[in-house]
Amino acid sequence: MSVLATLVTAAQPVPVPAPPAPAATITQPPISYPAIMPILIILGAACVGVLFEAFLPRHNRIAAQLVLSVLAILVAGWRLLSYADEMPETGTITLGRALAVDKPTLVLWATLLVLTIGALILMADRTVERGGYFVADAAVRPGTVQDRAQAGRGEMQTEVFPLALFALGGMMVFCAANDLLTMFIALEVLSLPLYLMCGLARRRRLLSQEAAVKYFLLGAFASAFFLYGLALLYGYAGSVQLSDIANAAAGTNRSETLLFGGLGLLVVGLLFKGSVGPFHTWTPDVYQGAPTPVTAFMGACTKIAAFGGILRVLSVGFGTTSWEWRGVLWGVAIASMVIGAVLGLTQTDVKRMVAYSSVAHAGFLLIGAIVLKPAGLSATLFYLVTYGFTTLATFGVIGLVRNADGEATHLSQWAGLAKRSPLVAGTMAFLLLALAGIPLTSGFVGKFVVFQAALSDGMAPLVVVAVLASAVAAFFYLRVIVLMYFSQPAEDGPTVTIPNLWTTGVLTVCVLVTLFLGIAPSLVLDWTSSGVFALQ
Amino acid sequence: MTSSSSSAVLVALLLVPLVGAIVVAALRGNDRLAKLVALGISIVEFALAIVSWAAYDAGGARLQQAFSMDWIPSFGVHLSFGVDGIALVMIAVIALLVPLVIGSSWLEKLPEGRSAGGFLGLILVEQALTIGVFAATDVFVFYVLFEIMLIPMYFLIGSYGGANRQYAAVKFFLYSFLGGMIMLASVIALYVQAGNALGKGTFDWATLVTVVHHAPLSTQIWLFLGFFAAFAIKAPLVPLHTWLPDAAAEAPIGVAVLIVGVLDKVGTFGFLRYCLPMFPDASRKLAPLVLVLAAAGVLYGSLLATGQRDMKRFIAYVSIAHFGFIALGIFSFSSQAMTGSVSYMINHSISTGMLIIVIGMVIARGGSTRIADYGGMAKLTPLLAGLFLLAGLSSLSLPGTNSFISEFLVLIGSYPNAPVYTIIATVGMILAALYILWLYQRVFTGPVRGDALMQFDGPGATIAPETGARRAIRDLTGREIGVLVPLVVLVIGLGLYPKPVLDVVTPTVNATMTSVGVGDPVTVQEGH
C-alpha cells in the first residue's frame, strides 16, 4: 500500500516540476521499522493464522489460533511500549509520509490492542455456547437438516481469529494513515474481515447472514463515497497527503466546490464507519445479527479506529478551513445524538438498544472531534478509551444471558434477572449507568471532558443538546435496570451461563477499568493529552 | 478554631454511614441484627452531628471544619468538604431523621424476597451521600454526589415501594437526572469561566464565587438557569414538581420522610449556596420569575392537598406548598425572610417528617392509604390522634410550634420587597389550616367508620364489641412513642425557643445576603 501511495505522489505532476523519468525516480522511501513494527507483527501473525487453518488439524486450531493471536498482540504491545520511549516528541512520519506514528496514534494503537485481546478471548469462549459462538460450517444453508446438525456440533470456524487480526491491522493503519489513499486501503482491510465475521453466528444464521450482507452492501457504498471524495480532493490539491490538502486550502483560489464536495463525500465514508447518525442505519441490524463477541469487537474497536481517522483527517487535513464546514458537522452531531437517544427508546432488543446507544455516543464523540484543539483531541481520545472498555464488557455480559434457543436478547426476557443472578444483573446495571454517564463511572468523566472542551471552544448550544440527549438516553438504560431489578422473573426466563475463567477475567477487567477511570481518571487523562498529531 | 479535630468529625460523619452500610448489607441473612446494627450506626452518626454542631463557631469563618485532598489534579478537582451554618443544621436534621426512620420502619413489611439489610444499607448510603452534598465545598464533588444520591433512592423506591413503584422510581430518576445534566453544562461552564479568568480552571466553591459573580449579566443568566433547573426540580417548584407525589406515594413511609425531609432540601440549599452567591445579578434579575413560581406553588400545593384522597400524596402536596414559602423567603432578599427560609427548611423536615411518620402509623393499622377508608379513629387510638394533631398543627404553623417562627419570618421579611407574592402566600396559610384540620376531622373524629377500620376479613378479624372496629387497631406501641418523642420535643422546644437554630444560621444568611449585594429593606439587622 505504501508503494501505491508513493507511486501516486511521485507520478502526479502538479507539485513536482522536474521532468518525469519513469522508474528511475521511484526509490524506496526510508522506513522506520521500529515505528511500524506493531502493524507488521499483527499482519504477519494474521498470515500465519491463515496457514494454521490450512495445516493444523481441526481440533487443535482454536487453541493454537488463540495463543498465536494473543501472543502477537502482546509482542506488538511490547514493541509499541518500547517505541513510545524513543519516539521523537513530534512523532515519526514514515513510509514516504504514508503513516504518521505520533502520540495520539500510540494511544489509539494501545487501546485497540488491549481491547482486541479482550474480544478475542470472548470469541474463544466455548463454555457459554457449546462449541463456541461461531458456526461449525459456514457453507451449510441455514434452516436445513445439516444446519441443525452443525448447530449441535462442538466445532467452530476458527478463521475468525486471523480475520480479527487482519481487521485489527487495518484499524491500526487507519488510525495512523497520513494520506487518504493509505487510509482508504486501511478502511478496506479493516472492513472486509468484519463483513465476513458478522455472518458466522452459530444460531439465528439467517439474521447473521442478513447482517453480513447489509453491512457489506452499505459498507461498499460508504467506501465508494470515500473514494469519490478522495478523487475530488486529489483534483483540488493535486495530492492525497492530508497536510498538502491543508496547505492547498490555506493559500489558493482553487475551486472550493472540489474541496468541500470532496470533504463531504470523504466524511460520509468516515461517519459511516463510526456509525454516526444519520449514517447509522446499518448499526442496529449488524449489531443484532453478528455473533455477540464480534459485535463487542466492532462496537469497541471499529468505533475507536473510525474516530481516530476522523480526528486526524479533520485536524490535520481540514483544520485550516474549519469555519466553513464545522456548521455542517454541528448538525450531524445533533442528528446523531437525537437519533440515537430517541430511537433507542423504542427498542425491544438489548443488542439493538445498545446499538442506538452507540449512535448517541458517536454524536458525543463527534462534538469532541470538531473542537480541533488539543483539549478536544485529548477529550475524544479519553472518551474512546472509556467507551471501548464499557462497550466490550456490555456485549460480553449480553452474551451470557441465554435460553434454549441461544441468546435471550429480547428485553422482556431480562425481567427479574437480578433475582436469578444478582452478580450479572449488578454488572450490567453498572455498565448501563456508565453508558448513561452517571458520576463515578468512566462514562461520566468522558462526557465531562468532551463537554468541557466543547464549551471552552464556544459550542454551548451543542453541549445543551448533548446534555438533553443524555437525559433522554438515560431512560432506556434505566428501563433495563427496572426490568432486571423491579420486575418479577418470567417462568421460562433465560438463565445466565457461567463463562469460563478467561471470559470472566475479561469482563472483570473491563468493569474495573470503567470504575477506575471514573474515580481516578488522571493517569489516562495525562496520557491522552500527552501530544498532538504530527503535521507534515 | 479546632480545625484538625473538628474536620475529623466531618470526615467521620461522611464515612460512618458508608462503612455501616457495608456492614448492614452483609447482614442480609439476619434481619433483626441488621436493624439493630443500622440503628446503632445512625445513633452514633447523630452523636457525631451533635459534636460537629458543638464545635461550630457561629461567629467564625464561613466554612468551618474544612478538609481537602487532591482528587483529579488534571482538572483541579479536590475532595473538599466543610460546613457553614446552613449546611450544619441540615446535616444535623439528616442525622436526626435517619434513626427515627429506622425506628419507624422497624416492622415494615418488605416485598417478598427483600431483606432488611439491603433496605437499611441503602438508607445509610443515602444518608452519607446527602451529608456529602451539604458539606461539599468543591462544585465538582457537589455535582457528583448530587447525581450519585439518585441511585440508592432509585432502588429504595423501585425495590421497596408500593404497587406502582417502577413508574415512580423511573420518573423520579429521570426528572432529577435531567436537572442534573443541565446543571452539568453550567458546572463545566463555570470551570471554563474560571479558566479564562485565572488562567487555570478550578472547582473550588469559594474561588468560583469571587470569579463568577463579576461575570456579565447574560453569562450569569445562562449559568443561573442551569443550576436553577436542577434545584427547582429537586426542591420541587411548581411546574417541575410532578415527580414528587408519585415518589412520595409509592415509597415506603421511611423513605418518603427522607425524600421530603432531606432530599428536597438539597434544592433550596442549592439556591442559597450556589445560585445567589455565584450569580447575584442574575438572581436579582430573575427573582420575580422565581417568586411567581413560589407563590403559585403555595396556592397550587395547598389546593391540591385539600383535594387529595390519598394520604401519602396529600403529604407531597403539603410539601410543595411549603417549598413555595421557602423559595419565597430566599428570593425576596431580606435577611429576615432568608433566615426564616433556612429555619423553615429545618422545621419543615421536623414537622412534615413527623406528619409522615404519624400517617405511616395510621396506614400500618388500617392497611390503606385512602383517606375515605378511615373515620373516627380517635376513639380507638387517642394517643395517635393527639400526636397526629400536634404534627398537623406544626405543619400549619400554629404559634408555639416550631414552624410558626419560620413562616412568620418569611412573610414579614418578604412583604417589603414582594408584597403581592407575600399576600398570595398568606392565603396559603389559611388553606393550610383547612387541609390539615379537614384531614384530621375525616380520619379521627366522629363515629368509627371506614373499610380500613371495620373490615371483617384477614388477620385480626375479631371485632371489639364496644366500637365495632377490628381488635387489631390499637394505640401507639412503646417503639412508636419512642420514635415520636424526640420530634414532639423539637416541635414544642423550637417553637418556644428557636434561638439555637437562628444563632447558627444567621451569620451564614448575612454572608449570603452580602454576596448578593442587596441591602436589607427593613432597618432590623440580625445580630452581627
Automatic annotation (TrEMBL), chain A:
<feature type="transmembrane region" description="Helical">
    <location>
        <begin position="33"/>
        <end position="55"/>
    </location>
</feature>
<feature type="transmembrane region" description="Helical">
    <location>
        <begin position="183"/>
        <end position="201"/>
    </location>
</feature>
<comment type="similarity">
    <text>Belongs to the complex I subunit 2 family.</text>
</comment>
<feature type="transmembrane region" description="Helical">
    <location>
        <begin position="160"/>
        <end position="177"/>
    </location>
</feature>
<feature type="transmembrane region" description="Helical">
    <location>
        <begin position="213"/>
        <end position="237"/>
    </location>
</feature>
<feature type="domain" description="NADH:quinone oxidoreductase/Mrp antiporter transmembrane">
    <location>
        <begin position="177"/>
        <end position="470"/>
    </location>
</feature>
<feature type="transmembrane region" description="Helical">
    <location>
        <begin position="381"/>
        <end position="401"/>
    </location>
</feature>
<keyword id="KW-0520">NAD</keyword>
<feature type="transmembrane region" description="Helical">
    <location>
        <begin position="257"/>
        <end position="276"/>
    </location>
</feature>
<dbReference type="InterPro" id="IPR010096">
    <property type="entry name" value="NADH-Q_OxRdtase_suN/2"/>
</dbReference>
<feature type="transmembrane region" description="Helical">
    <location>
        <begin position="462"/>
        <end position="486"/>
    </location>
</feature>
<feature type="transmembrane region" description="Helical">
    <location>
        <begin position="353"/>
        <end position="375"/>
    </location>
</feature>
<keyword id="KW-1278">Translocase</keyword>
<feature type="transmembrane region" description="Helical">
    <location>
        <begin position="296"/>
        <end position="315"/>
    </location>
</feature>
<protein>
    <recommendedName>
        <fullName>NADH-quinone oxidoreductase subunit N</fullName>
        <ecNumber>7.1.1.-</ecNumber>
    </recommendedName>
</protein>
<keyword id="KW-1003">Cell membrane</keyword>
<keyword id="KW-0874">Quinone</keyword>
<dbReference type="GO" id="GO:0048038">
    <property type="term" value="F:quinone binding"/>
</dbReference>
<feature type="transmembrane region" description="Helical">
    <location>
        <begin position="327"/>
        <end position="346"/>
    </location>
</feature>
<feature type="transmembrane region" description="Helical">
    <location>
        <begin position="422"/>
        <end position="442"/>
    </location>
</feature>
<comment type="function">
    <text>NDH-1 shuttles electrons from NADH, via FMN and iron-sulfur (Fe-S) centers, to quinones in the respiratory chain. The immediate electron acceptor for the enzyme in this species is believed to be a menaquinone. Couples the redox reaction to proton translocation (for every two electrons transferred, four hydrogen ions are translocated across the cytoplasmic membrane), and thus conserves the redox energy in a proton gradient.</text>
</comment>
<keyword id="KW-0472">Membrane</keyword>
UniProtKB/TrEMBL annotation, chain B:
<comment type="similarity">
    <text>Belongs to the complex I subunit 4 family.</text>
</comment>
<keyword id="KW-0812">Transmembrane</keyword>
<dbReference type="GO" id="GO:0003954">
    <property type="term" value="F:NADH dehydrogenase activity"/>
</dbReference>
<feature type="transmembrane region" description="Helical">
    <location>
        <begin position="172"/>
        <end position="192"/>
    </location>
</feature>
<feature type="transmembrane region" description="Helical">
    <location>
        <begin position="140"/>
        <end position="160"/>
    </location>
</feature>
<feature type="transmembrane region" description="Helical">
    <location>
        <begin position="115"/>
        <end position="134"/>
    </location>
</feature>
<keyword id="KW-0472">Membrane</keyword>
<feature type="transmembrane region" description="Helical">
    <location>
        <begin position="314"/>
        <end position="333"/>
    </location>
</feature>
<feature type="transmembrane region" description="Helical">
    <location>
        <begin position="418"/>
        <end position="440"/>
    </location>
</feature>
<dbReference type="InterPro" id="IPR001750">
    <property type="entry name" value="ND/Mrp_TM"/>
</dbReference>
<feature type="transmembrane region" description="Helical">
    <location>
        <begin position="76"/>
        <end position="103"/>
    </location>
</feature>
<feature type="domain" description="NADH:quinone oxidoreductase/Mrp antiporter transmembrane">
    <location>
        <begin position="136"/>
        <end position="427"/>
    </location>
</feature>
<dbReference type="GO" id="GO:0015990">
    <property type="term" value="P:electron transport coupled proton transport"/>
</dbReference>
<dbReference type="InterPro" id="IPR003918">
    <property type="entry name" value="NADH_UbQ_OxRdtase"/>
</dbReference>
<keyword id="KW-1133">Transmembrane helix</keyword>
<feature type="transmembrane region" description="Helical">
    <location>
        <begin position="252"/>
        <end position="274"/>
    </location>
</feature>
<feature type="transmembrane region" description="Helical">
    <location>
        <begin position="36"/>
        <end position="56"/>
    </location>
</feature>
<feature type="transmembrane region" description="Helical">
    <location>
        <begin position="286"/>
        <end position="307"/>
    </location>
</feature>
<dbReference type="GO" id="GO:0012505">
    <property type="term" value="C:endomembrane system"/>
</dbReference>
<feature type="transmembrane region" description="Helical">
    <location>
        <begin position="345"/>
        <end position="364"/>
    </location>
</feature>
<dbReference type="GO" id="GO:0048039">
    <property type="term" value="F:ubiquinone binding"/>
</dbReference>
<feature type="transmembrane region" description="Helical">
    <location>
        <begin position="481"/>
        <end position="498"/>
    </location>
</feature>
